[in-house]
Amino acid sequence: MNLNQLTYFKTIVESGSYMKAATRLNVAQPTLSNAIHRLEKELGTTLFDRSGRNSQVTPQGMDFYYYVNESLTSLESGTKRIQTRPQQASLIRLGFFFSLGSQFIPEMISDYWQTYPNDQFTFIQKSSNELHQALKSQRCDLVICTLPSDNDPHLIYTPVLQQHFVVAISDKHPLAKRHQVSLTELDGETLLSFPLKSRVRKVINNLLVAEHITPKQTIVFEEDRTMLGFVAQGIGYAILPRTEVTSFHGIKALPLAEMVPPQSIFIGYPNELDHNPGLRRAVTFIKAYCQTHDLDSGDQRVG
């Protein structure tokens, strides 16, 4: 027994004939006949007397009609009520690394609120390693970060973005008028970089070793905005993903002549979303948003 069979039965009773019901439902008459035949077989009774020109509902059919009509009316009322009910607001704790905070995240959340204005967010900015720990300890509901080194069976990480590496130098640097730079041209200068535990720092170190580059010294910073402030003063150069470099005053971002694989950015969230519709909405939206917004595109200026 299914919803179509019940709807067909109700319409035939109210129309008085299979032909009128078929026209009303915009279905072929044999479709109605087959559906009612299966329904009668399942119920073990005859619903219509087909001996005359018109199909007359039997006493058993009339009894069944009462329950079908009540059930379908109740179902329709419930459907309308759910569809018109205001969506329940959710509080979502979103974590992301620092460089996404100046433009990408604000623009994304602004778009999100156009669709889901009732949902609220709290924002947490930390390094990718710290974000992973926050997600594991349930201090964040979802995070946008690089892929953690350890696998947690209770968490899902899905790649959503890519960031390409650039060299950031002061706009007063002798190479600032160039359109591309090779690391060999920066050999012996001061490198400004992230802590050794950082995934980005490991990429940078491997690149320097491969190209036989030895910095004069390496100065370590926890986040890239401070690092870029030192770069703007001509204290050294930085190799980093194209974050806010293009919009940072006093900085020139140059593509590398060397081939460097881009850094993948992931969205991380618990593998059980059924109990949290707000979080499920946010995960679905962010995945779709990232498909059409490139961190490296000129109009984004992030990453």
List the helices and strands and how they pair.
Blueprint: H1 3-15, H2 18-25, H3 29-43, E1 48-49, E2 56-57, H4 59-84, E3 91-96, H5 104-115, E4 120-125, H6 128-136, E5 142-145, E6 155-163, E7 165-170, E8 191-193, H7 199-210, E9 218-220, H8 224-232, E10 237-241, E11 251-255, E12 263-270, H9 277-292
Helix pairs in contact: 1-2, 1-3, 1-4
Question: Can you tell me about this structure?
Answer:
The protein has 303 residues and is of the alpha/beta class. It folds into three domains: 3-84, Orthogonal Bundle (Arc Repressor Mutant, subunit A); 91-161 and 265-292, D-Maltodextrin-Binding Protein, domain 2 (3-Layer(aba) Sandwich); 165-255, Periplasmic binding protein-like II (D-Maltodextrin-Binding Protein, domain 2, 3-Layer(aba) Sandwich). Helices cover 40% and strands 19% of the residues. It has nine helices and twelve strands. It is rod-shaped, with a radius of gyration of 32 Å. The two termini are 56 Å apart. The model is unreliable at 297-303 (pLDDT under 50). Residues 1-58 form the HTH lysR-type domain. Belongs to the LysR transcriptional regulatory family.
Number of domains: 3
Uncertain parts: 297-303
The portion of residues assigned to helices is 25-40%
Distance between the termini: 56 Å
- Main sheet attributes: strand count, strand direction, barrel closure: 5 strands, mixed
Number of helices: 9
Organism: Secundilactobacillus collinoides
Protein name: HTH lysR-type domain-containing protein
Domain HTH lysR-type: 1-58
Keywords: DNA-binding, Transcription, Transcription regulation
